[in-house]
Specification:
Shape of chain A: globular
Number of helices of chain A: 10
Number of strands of chain A: 10
Oligomer: homodimer
Distance between the termini of chain A: 38 Å
Largest sheet of chain A: 6 strands, antiparallel
Helix content of chain A: 40-55%
Structural class of chain A: alpha+beta
Radius of gyration of chain A: 20 Å
């Protein structure tokens, strides 16, 4: 959540001049993005009436070779009517450009809306429906990207931290055996497409009960649609620390999804394991971050136990939650 | 440069409802402000045509008792035609409100423009002229606030770090004796008013050669106008690391200032010492920050030596620079 690179007014004006969007009026670094820097940019617009954009600079993690996948996916979904920000192409027709030789930048549509913290059932229903629409539209997307955060890699990541788990929390060490069971029970074949795989409330913009933006597709990959729904379920239906499950939000999310794309029986059966796999992923990534971030680093560390508590719920009542 | 407090969509909507600005459309945390959090807020506007604001949450450092000084100063300067953002008053007429019992928030006018890194002489001239206009308009402001970062307090702050100075840089230890000379030579009486006292390029918004915004008045205090100009001179007329002085920028800044408010002879004479006092201030504050910030804190530490190099220039050629 920071701006990693300083862009001067001169840099910004030169960049904006590469696009047919009028002249630069304002630019403010925004506190979004984990591995990239973002600016809210205002220009005079093509018609002089003003226009706003998000300028993203790719700093790390995302390799240049993958940018066409991510940016073309935005354009594909946007052109299929999803509330996904499309890219602005530069005067040469390109959706991204190099800046300073080693960093890529893209100018992206600005979408209205705010992220909700405590969704209502109507909001959860709308999110479920949007996710199903996303899954259907993504089927016609011609590119693919493998899921690097699959069950096996998440399990390995957690196993690699095994010496530290007890020190973080005694209960965390049990999660390796539990993760091994998830890996063993992972269903053989489920309907797949390109999935968002990280549709937390932060990545959904809403106005009232309407989804106005699905953003941050930088974990998008090929995967099971029901797994994507399970990630969203784990992300939306609990208190932040996982202490309380909100069944009415869970039901609304599933109903909304199925109002657009009914789950197949094999998907319904798989949901409890998929939801546990989602928990494994965030327990593993948060444990790694916890170990790598010094306690005095002025950075908020996300507690892996938040997703151990969710995992408990799915392990104990999963069959009932998704029946 | 961060957002310290999480504001949910629900929090934001409830806050915005206290103002006659339409409904919330968007809010993004922006990477500005050192001791406060800021959001770029968009609403439907009073007329439905959209409006933008900066929402500031005061987290630290600024005591609540001082907020009326800072916010009334914005309104005073704005009403005198300065490009200073005015506050939006809530439905009860107040320029700030409490949030969560312990934090104050203010909704502030959004101004266009971007901060320049490498000003041209024409831009420096415009900044000088704006600063002189600010000094003249501030004379009619009825409130006051003492300068807590005066020469004596800056000198004491540096002396308190004396054990660490050699470890940071051997040359830094010499700055105590030099600071004592600045304190000794500080001119007895100079024309004073409320000054900005921190008019770095970050705090000036420009479009082309026009100053469109003077922002971040949270160091504003009673002080010598020529000292304020000296701070701006030190902030604008050097390479960032202080390695190179740009005489043409310095001349343009002084000419611009004097096109609105000619300096008195005693002010011209004092400029070399005032500029050194400005360097003392930033050497002291950066040294404190350097010592207090762990090297692995993921926070960029500003090098106090950047202002030692400026100080060298003022100590050696000050008389010629301001003649």
């Amino acid at each position: 959540m920071a701006v990693y690179t300083h862009l001067s007014a001169e840099d910004l004006a030169a960049l904006i001049a590469q696009y047919d969007v009028g002249e630069l009026v304002s630019a403010k670094g925004i506190a979004e993005g984990v591995s990239n820097s973002n600016w809210m940019v205002e220009t005079t617009g093509q018609d002089g009436n003003g226009a706003r954009f998000i300028l993203t600079m790719y700093e790390r993690r995302i390799e240049l070779a993958e940018l066409p996948f991510f940016l073309d996916l935005l354009d594909h979904l946007s052109s299929h009517g999803l509330p996904v920000p499309h890219t602005i192409h530069d005067r040469h027709g390109a959706s991204w450009r190099m800046f300073d030789e080693d960093k890529a930048v893209a100018l992206i549509e600005y979408l209205p809306g705010v992220s909700v913290d405590r969704p209502t059932p109507r909001q959860a229903y709308a999110v479920g429906a949007s996710q199903a629409e996303l899954h259907i539209a993504a089927q016609a997307f011609g590119k693919t990207r493998e899921d690097r955060l699959n069950v096996l890699s998440n399990l390995s990541a957690l196993e690699n931290c095994s010496d530290e788990l007890l020190r973080i929390d005694p209960r965390l060490a049990d999660m390796i055996a539990r993760g091994q069971r998830v890996h063993r029970d992972w269903p053989a074949s489920l309907p797949e497409t390109i999935i968002h795989s990280d549709l937390f409330p932060d990545n959904v913009l809403m106005l009232g009960d309407t989804v106005t933006g699905l953003i941050d597709f930088y974990f998008a990959c090929h995967g099971a649609m029901a797994y994507d729904l399970a990630v969203t379920h784990a992300a939306w239906c609990f208190e932040r620390d996982g202490s309380t499950f909100h069944p009415e939000i869970g039901s609304a999310l599933l109903s909304g999804y199925q109002s657009v794309r009914p789950l197949e029986p094999r998907e319904v059966m798989a949901m409890p394991i998929l939801a546990q796999a989602a928990c494994l992923r965030f327990v593993a990534s948060r444990t790694q971050d916890w170990i790598e971030t010094p306690p005095d680093a002025h950075v908020m560390r996300k507690d892996p136990m938040d997703f151990v508590r969710r995992w408990d719920v799915y392990a104990e009542m999963g069959d009932r939650l998704f029946a």
